[in-house]
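Example record used in the benchmark description.
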Amino acid sequence: MKDDYDLSGEKRSKKKLLHLLVVSSLIFGMFFGSGNLIFPVHLGQLSGNNWMSAAFGFAISGSLFPLLAILAVVVTKSDGLYDLARPVGKFYAAMFLVLVHLTIGPFFGTPRTAATAFEMGLKPFLPAKFDTVGMLVFTALFFGLAYVLTVHQNRLLKYVGKYLNTIFLVLLAVIFVVAFLNPMGGLNHMPTQAYQTSATVSGLLEGYNTIDAVALLALSVTFVHAVKGLGYKDRELTGLTAKAGSLSIALEVLVYFGLVLLGSFSLSRLSLSDNGGTALSQIVNYYFGNFGAAFLGVLVTLGVFTTAMGLVASFSQDFHKLFPKVSYLAWLRVTTIMSFVVANAGLDNIIAWSLPVLMLLYPLSLALILVSLTVHSKPYAGVVYKMTIAFTVLPAVFDMLNASPAAVTNLTFVKAALNFYHQYVPFASLGLGWVTLTLAGFVLGLVFGKLGVFASQTNSVESRN
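Model output (structure tokens):
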């Protein structure tokens, strides 16, 4: 497609617009999964008539953080997660890449996509006695197809951006049109206690749990590779990536507000559900009857399948870059086979131990985004990177311990450490204790950097290669 740049001005503009839309669709499809679909619906039920404030808070953490992740990749001209974290140190960058990809990849995120698709797409139609066999066959087909469609990296843009995500958005639009033309009722429902006085904060904390910023950092190698495959480089590459990322996040915000509103409307006919999956199932069944279960199954399967494709591709691309002697295809086989095994062998236990690791990685990811967006080109960038991450590690470890299974949190020394952390560190009880310490490390890094302290360690991102 490199000959696109020889076209006339009008054709070139149209081609650029098409590329922008397709890349935006690719980014949206890769990170918008089942959690993004069901969390906002439950949020709408919990927040009642305070749905708008709650949705605004959710959008800040659920959409703004991922947008900043995309911009961090664009601003630093990184070609993946390793490049982005390398100013902290090569060893840290390698460990960070491995932890992120294993956690959101074959140890947690990717197996969960197939498990969710099976639970909502096929299991409702199978007799209970066939659950185990059904899961085995379904996940084999799921990951087999994911492997086949990601073997050729340059075709991911077409499969996800042009086709699969487009179908997903059309199906979702059908639900919105039907529901909003015939709403279940009004919006005068009493919020739950947490959303009566602090709906925005509660919504922000709920969006924080999507952990999309980590996912987008990991997926960055895939959408940057896709834009390069269209023939873009240098400024045009960064420009298109930034615009596509912003457009995909803007679309996500609109979808979030629609889903939250859908949940709030539903309280006129439905009782408060235990989770967003149940709420969305009940809403779709209300409008589409018996056909609703199949409709929702297709919708959710498409949503998680595009995410699975993005995860297996980015895992293979980043690991091939870190370990170049092992080919992309070999890593692709590793991640799809591991994901298949984990999905069928104790996924619940894997999730229980993977979630704490995500809580460790999220503060570290946001700290990395902060320094990447602010000081990446400064001559003292290395000091700021290292100081900020150093100050983030401790609260991140505490957040990991706090999210760990009871076998860990009930240990005497862990319980005592967490009590101290929650009592003396601002916002720690909300899971945001890292904020003040990260900012403190960032400010100290700036001071030391500008004063020339640790000058031998100063290095800009521009010169890291």
